[in-house]
Design goal:
Order of helices and strands: EHHHEHEEHEHEEHEHHHH
Number of strands: 8
Shape: globular
Largest sheet: 6 strands, parallel
Strand content: 5-15%
Low-confidence stretches: 239-250, 261-281
Length: 281
């Protein structure tokens, strides 16, 4: 299975670096300074999306390996308004294909856990019921919207949900199918179930956290945000994604080729157009 692929990043590590820097600043000041550089429409768009964000529904992935699958699930979490994605890393860190995630790593908080015990403890502490995905689950997708606080558990591409995590799940949900296929890709399963799980739920993030997300969104989308804040004495690391690419080279007219060196006339040219010396001189 795919693991090494171009344009990938360890999202959780990059998020922790940025969030640690934001925590050291006055979030309200960051938002006040940067929102001067966006239009009213952009401010309304950011505030509206953040206000609809959900804490009641989350996803827990069991040791995802393929960075394309992980990125696709992350993108679905963003599309359906989830604020958090939990990853049980087990043996390897969570790697995401930035080509597939398409910037969704900027909006969804990725929480990583080294062990099943740590993940289960965190989810239970936040009041989430763990529901596994399984072809013979007793729940259907429509049942998910009635669970007050849901943690949808997705398995590894090859091994599925490991026994220790499956044992922590109170119930299981299936995606009804009528074809010959017995299962779907993990990212497709996530999208189908999240559409049902989030349907009709209002945003439920507390106001202070919404303000923090608004400031973070401005930091990640306003051009030269780090330089603007630095001029006000607020210093941030390079935004998510690592070192920014070098500026593009200026495009201009292609340089003209130098004219070809003149060549001596050929014998035929000389005989046709050049004066001839008299014979016998």
């Amino acid at each position: 299975m795919r693991r090494s692929t171009p344009n990938c990043s360890f999202v959780a590590q990059e998020q922790r670096r940025l969030l640690a820097a934001l925590d050291s600043l006055d979030i309200a000041d960051v938002a006040r300074i940067l929102e001067e550089f966006v239009t009213d429409e952009r401010r309304a768009r950011l505030r509206g999306v953040i206000a609809a964000r959900l804490d009641a529904v989350t996803v827990a992935m069991d040791a995802p390996h393929d960075p394309h699958n992980g990125a696709a699930v992350l993108r679905s979490c963003d599309a359906f308004g989830l604020q958090r994605l939990h990853i049980i890393e087990r043996a390897e860190p969570f790697l995401v294909s930035n080509t597939v995630s398409r910037g969704s790593e900027r909006w969804v908080d990725v929480r990583t856990h080294a062990t099943t015990e740590a993940a289960v403890a965190a989810l239970r502490a936040s009041g989430h019921e763990l529901v596994a995905t399984h072809p013979e689950g007793e729940l259907t997708p429509r049942d998910l919207s009635s669970i007050p606080r849901l943690a949808l558990v997705l398995g590894n591409e090859r091994d599925g949900i490991r026994p220790d995590l499956a044992a922590a799940c109170a119930r299981a949900v299936r995606v009804p199918m009528r074809g010959f296929a017995e299962s779907l890709n993990v990212s497709v399963t996530a999208a189908i179930l999240l559409e049902h799980a989030t349907n009709g739920r209002p945003g439920d993030l507390p106001e202070p956290y919404q303000i923090k997300l608004y400031a973070r969104a401005l930091v990640l989308t306003v051009p030269h945000a780090a330089e603007i804040l630095a001029a006000r004495g607020m210093h941030l690391p390079v935004p998510l994604g690592g070192t920014p690419p070098p500026p593009p080279k200026p495009r201009g007219p292609k340089p003209k080729r130098p004219p070809a060196l003149a060549t001596l006339p050929t014998l035929e040219t000389r005989s046709a157009g050049a004066p001839q010396e008299p014979e016998g001189g």
